[in-house]
């Protein structure tokens, strides 16, 4: 009798265990992405792009990819966002609301390093997966946060690709000058550039910063000229990047290459400087025209997930209802959706801890490029693309698998550009 009762109990426990196990991977009716978006305020332009990119990839996942596979069932994504007004205090309160009231499954950060860092402790306190598409500052990933993962490339890697390119196309180039704005972000870029330059065997002959809001770079540029560099890396933001380029022209400072962060890739840069911008380069997280594709992914032995670049652009325009081309703010936010989808499927779970662990093991390529993170969540698999102004157009010149044209190296001198010479690859 006791034996029969014991056997019955074991069967009952096994049945209960089966249902508990099934429930553990039971698919919800939807997966909700929460986002304190910058619809207004100083980051409104980047915020609009991010929203368009996220909506585009949510559309693709739901209607082309057929949803996220969890527990043998395809689940649609839902995107829930509020306007944080580009304010830190709004970011913290909205993340709390998204988690506790809207019951989201993942939080996407607001744009910018400052807003991303401000929201991280809130997500951390709720043990909520927190994905960063707009905060490049490496400092974010030195705080010991467990739930944050980066999609945008870190600041220290902004000029790595430029250095790799020059190292490959000009073995004779040895001397590099570094001149960046005295801001936390720009100094991070400079630190990464210095480290990578020395790793490649370049000699850093000049290394200085200049104040925020600078109106005259003549003393710094005069000292830079005396160091006689083969090429120059620098910048900080749009205004000082223009000043840097203009005063180099005024002082007749010529170099084989000039690359300026956060300025040279913008159409307004060329509009302001016209021919003086010919041949100038700048790093970008993504540019329309990149050649990342399923075929390129196969070459480097990485899994691919769509949409293609052209599909993404069409979905982006549909999402915003505007006939505008997405920029990198849209692309990085969109790629974050794809990373989340693949991680949920890899974990076969929506639990933040399990999805975070899956993200740590995940590598893939999308229209945005490569994706991989280190143990802190810092993005290490995505390479910046380098853009160069050639005959009034932005051309992607690096890396080779993404380029739309060859680099013009060395770039024309300022005297040549004043006479109408444009940057044309040899």
Note down, in words, how this protein is organized.
This protein has 426 residues and is an alpha/beta fold. It has 2 domains: 31-153 and 289-371, 3-Layer(aba) Sandwich (Rossmann fold); 157-284 and 384-418, Response regulator (Rossmann fold). It has helices spanning 2-24, 44-63, 88-100, 113-125, 160-169, 184-200, 218-226, 238-251, 267-273, 294-299, 309-320, 328-347, 352-361, 414-418; strands at 31-37, 68-70, 73-75, 77-83, 106-108, 130-132, 148-150, 175-181, 203-210, 231-235, 257-261, 281-284, 364-366, 369-371, 385-390, 393-398. Strands 4-1-5-6-7 form a 5-stranded parallel sheet, sandwiched between helices. Strand 10 (231-235), helix 8 (238-251) and strand 11 form a beta-alpha-beta unit. The longest helix is centred in the first third of the chain and has 23 residues, at 2-24. The chain starts with a helix and ends in an 8-residue tail after the last helix. The model is unreliable at 8-25 (pLDDT under 50).
Helical proportion, percent range: 40-55%
Radius of gyration: 24 Å
Runs with pLDDT <50, length 5+? Answer: 8-25
- What is the CATH class of the largest domain? Alpha Beta
**Strand order, largest beta sheet:** 4-1-5-6-7
Largest sheet: 5 strands, parallel
* Percent of sequence in beta strands: 15-25%
SS elements, strand count? 16
Output the CATH homologous superfamily of the largest domain. Response regulator
- How does CATH name the architecture of the largest domain? 3-Layer(aba) Sandwich
Output the number of helix runs: 14
Give the overall pLDDT as a whole number: 93
SSE string, helix = H, strand = E?
A: HEHEEEHEHEEHEHEHEHEHEHHHHEEEEH
Distance between the termini: 93 Å
Tally of separate domains: 2
Q: What is the fold-level CATH name, i.e. the topology of the largest domain?
A: Rossmann fold
| Assembly state (oligomeric) | single chain
Which outline best applies? globular
């Amino acid at each position: 009798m006791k034996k029969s009762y014991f056997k019955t109990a074991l069967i009952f426990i096994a049945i209960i265990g089966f249902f508990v196990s099934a429930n553990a991977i039971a698919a919800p009716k939807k997966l909700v992405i929460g986002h304190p978006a910058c619809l207004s305020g100083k980051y409104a332009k980047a915020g609009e792009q991010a929203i368009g990119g996220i909506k585009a990839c949510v559309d693709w996942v739901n209607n082309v990819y057929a949803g996220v596979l969890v527990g043998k069932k395809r689940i649609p994504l839902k995107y829930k966002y509020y306007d944080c007004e580009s304010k830190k205090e709004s970011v913290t309160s909205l993340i709390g609301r998204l988690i506790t009231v809207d019951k989201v499954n993942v939080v996407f950060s607001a744009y910018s390093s400052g807003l991303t860092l401000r929201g991280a402790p809130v997500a951390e306190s709720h043990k909520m997966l927190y994905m960063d598409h707009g905060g490049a500052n490496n400092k974010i990933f030195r705080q010991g946060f467990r739930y944050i993962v980066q999609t945008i490339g870190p600041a220290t890697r902004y000029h790595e690709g430029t250095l790799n390119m020059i190292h490959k196309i000009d073995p004779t180039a040895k001397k590099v000058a570094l001149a960046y704005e005295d801001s936390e972000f720009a100094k991070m870029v400079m630190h990464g550039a210095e480290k990578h330059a020395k790793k490649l065997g370049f000699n850093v002959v000049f290394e200085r910063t200049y104040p925020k809001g600078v109106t005259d770079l003549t003393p710094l540029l005069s000292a830079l000229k005396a160091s006689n560099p083969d090429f120059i890396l620098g910048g900080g933001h749009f205004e000082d990047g223009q000043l840097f380029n203009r005063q180099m022209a005024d002082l007749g400072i010529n170099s084989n290459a000039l690359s300026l962060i956060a300025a040279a890739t913008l159409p307004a840069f060329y509009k302001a400087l016209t021919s003086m911008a010919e041949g100038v380069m700048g790093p970008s997280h993504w540019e329309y025209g990149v050649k990342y594709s399923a075929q390129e992914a196969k070459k480097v032995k990485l899994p691919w997930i769509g949409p293609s670049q052209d599909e993404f652009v069409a979905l982006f325009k549909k999402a915003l209802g505007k006939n505008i081309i997405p920029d990198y703010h849209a692309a990085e936010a969109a790629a974050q959706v794809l990373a989340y989808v693949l991680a949920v499927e890899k974990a076969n779970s929506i639990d933040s801890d399990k999805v975070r662990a899956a993200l740590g093991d995940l590598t893939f390529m999308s229209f945005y490029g490569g994706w991989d993170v280190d143990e802190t969540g810092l993005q290490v698999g995505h390479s910046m693309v380098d853009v160069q102004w050639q005959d009034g157009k932005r051309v992607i010149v690096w890396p080779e698998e993404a380029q739309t044209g060859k680099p013009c190296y060395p770039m024309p001198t300022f005297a040549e550009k004043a006479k109408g010479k444009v940057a044309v690859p040899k």
